[in-house]
Amino acid sequence: MIAPESPLIDAQWRIATVLIDALSMLIDDESEFISWFVFECDYGRKAKEAGFNENIQLINSHEKLRWLIDSSFDS
Length: 75
Fold this sequence. Notes:
single chain, 3 helices, about 15% strand, elongated
């Protein structure tokens, strides 16, 4: 097991953040939903509700995340 204070853990989080930022830039995720899904929702394991106007859904999968990002372009 790697200790939580290990510099290896810090490097892993930096890489993950850079990859998330790159993906967000590629798909124009200006609302930062990918970052929210990864860090706040733990990749969907801690699903949370999100949406626009009256259309709120539980975001617990990549498909629902894609719906949320696509919906942000419509609102």
